[in-house]
């Protein structure tokens, strides 16, 4: 009988560049749980960082993948077409807002980010890109160039792609103290105007790239007026508005796309994570007119748009329809928020509860106002001891994000909240 793989072997043969938050070696998963090779079960509130929209190994997704693999894995989308991939593109086009109806498939969020930036520059014939502090868009050279959720992601990689400029996002920690939501919105729109005035003129700006809800940056929800202000600026100056919906999209916030909360349609949208139920997949979605300036050969990829991804993606969307997933996200999102707010009322170190739908986070801080990144790590460590996987967020590491499956039930939420309750109680003693 083969011996179990140890974490020390893992460290010996695989690069340490990818940071690990646990030393668990996971063998299998089902729904909201994963199991180690030793048979220990863990409640997973990370779900591949919001990848497994329906939980681990969802039966209809597994069936669709298995059926497709038996027929064809890939023959290069550059050479041939696949029925599943074409059907998935059509389904996404039907769901996407406005006239976003043309899809380019790739494998991960960073690839989609790079593609969106290339598309914006190809269409506008301009060099400048404006992104936001607190943003996370991936770790390729292009995606890292527009990422500013933490300086560690850019360490030892400069110089990065040129022509990138960063503006403030309307979060509390990036704006003047005491500003309310609308004041933060106006201040951040004015910050973009300063970039236009001092650094990169509007007619030299190809795109403004923004997460409609910041993910890695702390699950920060911006004011509606801010998102609408971005739309107005872009429309006024012929700038492409790019929404990174890689984490916030595909039902996570209670609407199919987070843009719907703001009444704003972008010119280009990136998707990823939840598209294919755990299979690597991402997409750049835009209008036919914009995509037509991305001429054949200007972008590509070996594995993007493969038929296995297409089959899995179709199965995910079928389940969204048949099981009213968005209704569940909204109902369970309210339930989870109420439970988190109860923890906030119980523990002074829980200073904030924020988010939309099932894209929710709590923030931990010391009673004297110091960021509680250490408190988050204590809470996460205690949760792991109680067999629950959790994930931090925020530039100071003082946020904890919840990434349950979108079909989560109250029983699973109650189980997780009970573990969080006990874990935060330990962290509270270290305030």
TrEMBL record:
Entry keyword set: Aminotransferase, Pyridoxal phosphate, Transferase
Keyword Manganese on entry: no
EC number per UniProt: 2.6.1.19, 2.6.1.22
Pfam family, any one: Aminotran_3
Pathway: Amino-acid degradation; 4-aminobutanoate degradation
Catalytic reaction list: 4-aminobutanoate + 2-oxoglutarate = succinate semialdehyde + L-glutamate; (S)-3-amino-2-methylpropanoate + 2-oxoglutarate = 2-methyl-3-oxopropanoate + L-glutamate
GO MF term list: (S)-3-amino-2-methylpropionate transaminase activity; 4-aminobutyrate:2-oxoglutarate transaminase activity; identical protein binding; pyridoxal phosphate binding
Co-factor(s): pyridoxal 5'-phosphate
Family the UniProt entry places it in: Belongs to the class-III pyridoxal-phosphate-dependent aminotransferase family.
Protein name, per record: (S)-3-amino-2-methylpropionate transaminase
Natural source organism: Bifidobacterium subtile
Species lineage: Bacteria, Bacillati, Actinomycetota, Actinomycetes, Bifidobacteriales
């Amino acid at each position: 009988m083969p011996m179990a793989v140890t974490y020390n072997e893992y460290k010996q043969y695989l690069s340490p560049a990818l940071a690990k938050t646990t030393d668990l070696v996971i063998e299998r998963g089902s729904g909201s749980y994963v199991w180690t090779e030793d048979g220990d079960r863990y409640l997973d509130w990370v779900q591949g960082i919001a990848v497994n929209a329906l939980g681990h190994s969802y039966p209809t997704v597994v069936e669709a993948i298995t059926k497709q693999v038996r027929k064809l894995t890939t023959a290069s989308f550059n050479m041939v077409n696949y029925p599943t991939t074409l059907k998935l593109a059509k389904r996404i086009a039907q769901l996407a807002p406005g006239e976003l109806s043309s899809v380019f498939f790739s494998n991960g969020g960073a690839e989609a980010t790079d593609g969106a930036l290339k598309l914006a520059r190809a269409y506008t014939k301009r060099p400048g890109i404006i992104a936001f502090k607190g943003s996370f868009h991936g770790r390729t050279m292009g995606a890292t160039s527009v990422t500013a959720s933490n300086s560690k992601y850019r360490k030892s990689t400069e110089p990065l792609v040129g022509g990138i400029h960063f503006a403030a996002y309307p979060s509390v920690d990036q704006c003047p103290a005491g500003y309310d939501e609308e004041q933060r919105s106006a201040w951040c729109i004015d910050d973009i105007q300063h970039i236009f005035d001092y650094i990169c003129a509007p007619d030299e700006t190809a795109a403004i790239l923004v997460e409609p809800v910041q993910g890695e940056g702390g699950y920060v929800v911006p004011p509606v007026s801010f998102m609408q202000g971005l739309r107005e600026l872009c429309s006024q100056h012929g700038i492409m508005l790019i929404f990174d919906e890689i984490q916030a999209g595909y039902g996570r916030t209670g609407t199919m796309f987070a843009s719907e909360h703001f009444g704003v349609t972008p010119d280009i949208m990136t998707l990823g994570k939840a598209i294919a139920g755990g299979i690597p997949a991402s997409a750049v979605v835009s209008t036919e007119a914009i995509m037509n300036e991305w001429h054949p050969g200007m972008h590509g990829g070996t594995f993007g748009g493969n038929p296995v991804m297409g089959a899995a993606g179709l199965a995910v969307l079928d389940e969204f329809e048949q099981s009213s997933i968005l209704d569940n996200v909204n109902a369970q999102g309210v339930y989870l928020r109420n439970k988190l707010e109860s923890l906030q009322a119980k523990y002074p170190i829980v200073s904030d509860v924020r988010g939309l739908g099932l894209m929710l986070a709590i923030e931990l801080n010391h009673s004297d106002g110091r960021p509680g990144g250490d408190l988050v790590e204590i809470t996460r460590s205690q949760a792991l001891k109680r067999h629950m996987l959790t994930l931090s967020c925020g530039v100071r590491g003082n946020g904890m994000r919840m990434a349950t499956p979108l079909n989560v039930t109250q029983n699973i939420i109650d189980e997780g909240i009970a573990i969080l309750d006990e874990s935060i109680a330990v962290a509270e003693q270290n305030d």
